[in-house]
Amino acid sequence: MSMNSGKTAVVTGASSGIGRATAEALAQAGFTVFGTSRRKASNGPDGVTMLVCDVTDGEAVAALVSTVLSRTGRIDLLVNNAGVGLLGGAEEFSIAQVQALFDVNLFGVIRMINAMLPSMRRRGEGRIINIGSVLGLVPAPYSAHYSAVKHALEGYSESLDHEVRAFNIRVSVIEPAFVRTVFDQNGIEPDSLLKEYDQARAGFKALLADVMPKADRPEMVADAVVKAATDARPRRRYTVGKAARQVSLLRRFAPAEMFDKTLRKQFRLPI
Ligand SMILES: NC(=O)c1ccc[n+]([C@@H]2O[C@H](COP(=O)([O-])OP(=O)(O)OC[C@H]3O[C@@H](n4cnc5c(N)ncnc54)[C@H](OP(=O)(O)O)[C@@H]3O)[C@@H](O)[C@H]2O)c1
């Protein structure tokens, strides 16, 4: 019998990509897994019970928590994975678009955590794992709002980890680089495309076309989540894959000017 049997995990955004792979990997590791999607899923991940929940809807989040608690009586692990992207020049996106991004990628996480913490606190144990990004460590061009929301997630997660450790609850952030999912295709187009960014956009799209086919597999992120969920002493951050590890190391140890040049070169920007 697995040491995780009897433990319950909730994974948001389990209908595709990283969330789907993570829900399956946790089920294989012995957890009883509930995955979420905004739509009723006909073919969810193997061994995972799918429930409908939009993380921007507080009532839907409360209903999700009470459904899971009524079925299993406990939530040991919450994986906040649901997320959307905004790729383009910062000024091309309307405030409404940026607010919608934050509503899913940050406030959605906070809604889920606020709804689940009381039961974790009462039981005196729990793990929360937030899916961040290397863009939460390094701001990159044409991802200003996405970089902002992933930086916010890093700050929120680290603060929360200090607060809830007293209740035997730990918070970790998983930091992948590019991962082969439909994430870039699901990215929201800017409300006002500006021709001044046409050339930069073409460079950025060329970069994506170059890196995406060689990007990391979602299963690599799923493995990191299982590790963070089961490590006796979980780390606050888990980078995933070679590219993310390199970026994280360079950010900390390379001279700022050299880092700036390398990044601009990668994004095909004049140095
Ligand atoms: N792919 C990458 O290169 C990459 C790199 C680093 C980090 N990440 C992060 O990894 C996470 C997952 O991304 P992915 O690449 O796996 O993308 P994906 O395949 O597009 O999956 C996104 C998931 O989020 C769910 N979702 C979107 N809006 C939602 C909402 N309002 N409420 C509830 N669920 C919602 C979607 O579910 P439904 O549409 O079924 O509702 C879907 O299951 C995101 O947080 C992303 O920022 C991705």
From TrEMBL:
Keywords: Oxidoreductase. It comes from the Bacteria. One of its GO terms (molecular function) is oxidoreductase activity. Pfam families: adh_short. InterPro entries: NAD(P)-bd_dom_sf (IPR036291), SDR_fam (IPR002347), SDR_oxidoreductase (IPR051911). Belongs to the short-chain dehydrogenases/reductases (SDR) family. This is NAD(P)-dependent dehydrogenase (Short-subunit alcohol dehydrogenase family). It comes from Mesorhizobium sangaii. The lineage of its organism: Bacteria, Pseudomonadati, Pseudomonadota, Alphaproteobacteria, Hyphomicrobiales.
